[in-house]
Amino acid sequence: MLDLKGYGPALMEGAVVTIELAFLSLALSVALGLLGASAKLSQNRLAKGVATTYTTLIRGVPDLVMMLLFYYGGQVAVNMLSDYIWEAYEIDFFFQFDPFISGVVTIGLIFGAYMTETFRGAFLAVEKGQIEAARAYGFTRFHTFRRIMLPQMMRHALPGLGNNWQVLLKTTALVSIIGLTDMVRVAEEAAKAERMPFHFFIPVAFVYLALTAGSELFIKWLDKRANVGVVQGS
Amino acid sequence: MPDFIAEWLNQNDIFTAMTIMEYWDGMVTTVHLVFLSLVIGLLVAVPLAILRTVRNPFVSGPVWLYTYLFRGTPLLIQLYIIYYGLAQIEGIQETFWWDIFREPFYPALLAFTLNTAAYTTEIIRGAIVSTPHGEIEAAKAYGMNWFMRMRRIVLPSAARRAVQAYSNEVIFMLHASAIASVVTIVDLTGAARNIYSRFYAPFDAFIFVALCYMALTFILVFAFRKLETHLLRHQRPVSG
Questions:
Q1: Which of A112, A117, A189, B30 could in theory staple to A29 by disulfide, Cβ–Cβ 3.0 to 4.6 A?
Q2: What pTM, to 2 d.p., does this model score?
Q3: Residue B145 sits in which domain range?
């Protein structure tokens, strides 16, 4: 189909890497977001403090700087840890901090902070009476969370979630800078070798455009489904 | 200064006067780049946002396409296309443009400006569209023409509604500017990367630069909060 001077298959593989990276980071960030939102809304002052520090720190630092810190710093930290383990227990332990893992961890952490804010707002939007009713029925805290809060909060969280996902998708391009062979990296190498930047970057740009446009439609559909039964004021 | 800090400063090789100067120069480049792209981007975005609200699809359509393309693709790709692409334009190397675009600063400035202008256009458009209808009716009743209505009523009122979203865009741009280091610009991140590779000290290099960005971010947040209270002072509850 699209040969692109022989780089077509490599670009395709790169696109798959981009998509995998995006979905794994999304999963991590949603998990962190739920955790962070619960911490922010809890009565525990320590949990609240940790969550607030986390979101403030993340929102003050550029994603690329964070990524470079995790990628280069992560390896140094792991080496220090494995040296320590070797000296203390004589267990040989080595772990290679590759760009993919650093990418997932960094993007997950960054968007976990944004998700925390999104989910916090959404949890607050759930009517208080619902929670009281659940309590009255004898639901445990966990049950209330799973059966009552989570399904109702998702409706309010969806627009913010969708927004974060769109930004996350575009942030994955940064991982090419720390050496992951995603489609941006392949395109960059091809463009340099063939001296044809437009030839390679424009198709990649269109893949991103297709991904964001597709997500937009999907989020709209989800939003419509989630709001079934809600009377929209106008 | 406590003794232990002085001792620590004397003992480390990384935070010497020279590296601090490198960071400083990087900070100047970052601020310069971000400030220029934001100012030019805003100047471009206001007329585009007005055009975007025009009913004629031949006027608003191209603006929509522009914002859609720039908002739907990563800034890094836009930077690569402009940085590598400008050099490939037939004959550019013989014109005076080449003297400008040979430096990586200007392609980066162009990419950042186009990107922020696209986002800002949509922010301002949203604010213009949500102008209360009564305000426009009142302006018409006073006999204001379209231009005067825009200048006196719609734009100032839209600015108040846009400032919150725009402050997010400004911070986003500051953070996004870190990718300038990829095209060999020595901005804050570029300085940190140089210092990292010289000393192989990732924590010192990147945590310090993260703190610098954080300081810049908080200055911006503070400034925008001041601006917001200034612009919205008529909505402040009357006290005492």
A1: A112
A2: 0.88
A3: 20-229
**CB count, 10 Å around CB of B200?**
11
Distance CA A32, CA A51 (A): 10
* 3-state SS assignment for residue A94: coil
- pLDDT tens figures, A136-186: 998 888 888 888 888 888 888 888 999 999 999 999 999 998 888 888 888
Res A196: pLDDT: 81
At residue A234, does pLDDT exceed 60?
no
Looking at residue B98, which CATH number applies to its domain? 1.10.3720.10
A-interface mutation test, from B34, B81, B172, most A Cβ less than 10 A away: B81
Give the nearest partner residue to B202 out of A63, A73, A209, using CB atoms.
Answer: A73
pLDDT digits (tens, 9 = 90+) for B195-211: 888 888 888 888 989 99
Nearest CB among A69, A187, A205 relative to B202 is that of A69
Which string of b and e fits A126-158 if b means at least 16 CB within 10 Å? beeeebeebeeeebeeeebbeebbbebbebbbb
Shortest Cα–Cα distance, B64 to chain A (Å): 14
Q: Across the interface, which of B77, B85, B206 has its CB nearest the CB of A173?
A: B77
Backbone Cα Rg of chain A: 22
- Give this complex's ipTM: 0.86
DSSP character at residue B55: S
Distance from CA of B2 to the nearest CA of A (A): 27
Question: Mean of the pLDDT values across residues A36-56?
Answer: 90
Q: Which residues of chain B have pLDDT under 50?
A: none
Options 3.30.1360.120, 3.30.70.270, 1.10.390.10, 1.10.3720.10; CATH of A14-180: 1.10.3720.10
A186: left (phi over 0), alpha (psi -120 to 50) or beta: alpha
B201: helix, coil or strand? coil
